[in-house]
Structures are given as structure tokens and as C-alpha cells.
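Here comes just one.
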Amino acid sequence: MVKEIVMKQTEIGMLPHDWEVESIGNLTSKIIGGGTPSRIVKEYWNGKIPWMTVKDFTSFNPNFTQENITELGLKNSATRIVPAGNLIIATRIALGKIVKYNVDVTINQDLKTINLFPKIKKDYFIYSYRNIEEKIIEKGSGSTVLGLSVADLNSFRIPLPPLPEQEAIAEALSDADAWIESLEQLIAKKCLIKQGAMQELLSPKEDWEVKKLGEVTIDGGLIRGPFGGALKKEFFVKNGYKVYEQKNAIYKSVHLGKYFVDTAKFKELGRFEVKTNDFILSCSGTIGKLFRIPQIFQKGIINQALLIIRLNSGLIDFGYFGHIFQYDTIQSKIIDDTQGGAMKNLVGMSEFRNTEIPLPSLTEQIRIATILSDMDTELEALEGQLGKSRKVKQGMMQELLTGRTRLI
């Protein structure tokens, strides 16, 4: 028989009748900040003492830091050693983040270490704190970089179950995190394996040909999107022919997008029509992302930020092209970074047309494409499993941290 959960109204919502609500200030005995040794003094840096900044919030239980300091740097700065297992939060830049380091570390001025009273378990506090991350970010202030004062931090209130239930909740959520982390590690491993396979399979061999991109497309098969003036926002209509955008190539989907043109505009820009098995390429901002148009899609045209690549199937396998074109050696040839800075551009059409594509026989192309596509399918399945696991964990947090589902 399921035990009925008797709830009560509190300032943070409905909670079980035997739970309390406490402010972080009433749960912490100390909140201590850190500091940065002088960058000018070389003797303070590259020692053996881990020194943590917001850049090191790479996992929930990290083991290393990007930078280390020396004993001299520790003694001559405001930083301090945080013993392994203590909680560290960000009060500037990465608001709402919290970790528990597995080794002794020092911290900079953007971080604080929290010492808790015995009435709350560390692991339970971690999950409760992550559950209010959005509220913490909203509370942050600052014109350029968000920060949170200790007073504001202390004012946040969280639910406080009895200690045995805190332990049970933390253990359940920790198990969910462990499963998620194992999937992330497996995906990372599979990505490395695929990277090695690409290196082996796509590196040109002695018996391969090398053809220019313009030689493996049909006549007129490289089509840069229309100039901005030909496709202004005032031409868009509520329904009609779809206008494909950068995000369709970046996220590999024909379903994204909300812009359409009428029949007259579609016919006027008919040269830019998208067809089955066309590859659309992102050409502005995020450059080099490639997507093959499937059999079923909405009839439409590309906008000015895309380029169509229409291949000659007698010379190159579509699947092989999708892999070889995303390979680093090809990507480096099509991106123009001669101007410097973060914004890159696609090379000019003449240079793009002359991009060299290594070509084995069609039979070998198909073999290579099959191997790499099978790897992609496996990775996509794992990514889907990871996404579902994250949603399950989020649902668990909503249930367990409000007491709607009780483990004791």
C-alpha cells in the first residue's frame, strides 16, 4: 500500500509536512573566498598546488585544475587551501555552479568555499543548490560580469528533509549522475575511435585520384545563395515555399526555420531551389557545416548564408563526400582566416571550386562511407540515450527535491 504524503504550504512551495525550509545562511558555518597570486612574480606560478578558477567547472567532481601555484604564491596572496571534499561555489561569472573537488585545491576571488552545519548533508546540498541555479543567476548583478554577494547567497532558501532522507535523495541523484557520466565517457571514447578511423580511412592512398570540387559536381552545381537584397524580410509570407537557413545545415534538419516566400518570389529565385541529395553548406559565422537534403523535405530555396553543392553521382558517392568534406584537411582549405579575429569567411568561389578532393574508387568510397556512417549511427543513438537520461534526472530532481516522491 502506498503511503499518503501529507503536504504543507511553505514560502518555496508545497513540501512534506515533516520537511523544513532553511536559508543557506542558516545552513553554513563559514563562507570563505580566495585570491590570485601576482602574475608578475614568476615564482608564484607553475608549482604543485592546484589553483581553481571558474574555468575548472568542467564536471561535478573534478580532479585537476588548469593552473597550479607554488607555496610562495600561496603565502603571498589571499588564496587559501580548500581540503578535498569541501564544497566550492562560483559567486562571479559562473553563477549557480557548485563542485566538490576530490583533491586539495586553492581558489581565486571569484569562488567561495562553504562549510555546512551537520543538519545538512554535503551531497544533498549540492543537488538543492543546483536546483535553484536559475534563481541564483537572476539574483546576480553587474554591468558586464554577473556577481553575487554573500548576503544574497545566504538569503536563498531550500527544502530540508530529515537527514536519512537527505542521504537517500543524494544517493539516487548521484546514481543518475554516474550513469550520465558513464554515457558521456563512452561517447567521448567512441568519438576518439571515429577520429582515428577517419584518419586511417580518409588519408589519401597511392592509387587514389585527386579531383577538384568543381569536377565532381554537375554543371552549375555550386550555387551560392542570393544576395541579401534579393531576399529581404518584407518578401517573407506566412506560408509558401520554405527559405532554408544556416541552422538547417548546422543542426542537420529540414524542419527548422520559419521563413517562406510566395510562388512569384520562388520562381524568380528558382536557381537557388533545394533538391533531394543536395548538400547545403553554412557560409557565414559558423562556416563549413554540411547537411544532405533527404528524400522528403519541404520545397524551397536557400538564403544568402548557404551554398548548394550538387554532386555528380557517377564520380563521387554522396555518403563519402559527407565524410571527406567534414574532414579537417578539407575544412582548413575552405575557411579564409587571413583577416584574423574570431569571424571567419568562406574562401572565394573560384578557390572553393578548386578545393581538392581525394577520391578512391566508387566501391571504396561506399565502403568507407558505410563504416563511418555506422559509427555515426552508434554515436547518435548514444547521444539520444544521454539526452533521455538527462531528462529523467531532471524529472527525478523535481520529484525528490519537492517531496512529491519520497524514498523513505
About this structure: Residues 209-359 form a domain with the Adenine-n6-DNA-methyltransferase TaqI; Chain A, domain 2 fold (CATH 3.90.220.20). The chain has three domains: 20-160, 161-204+365-408, 209-359.
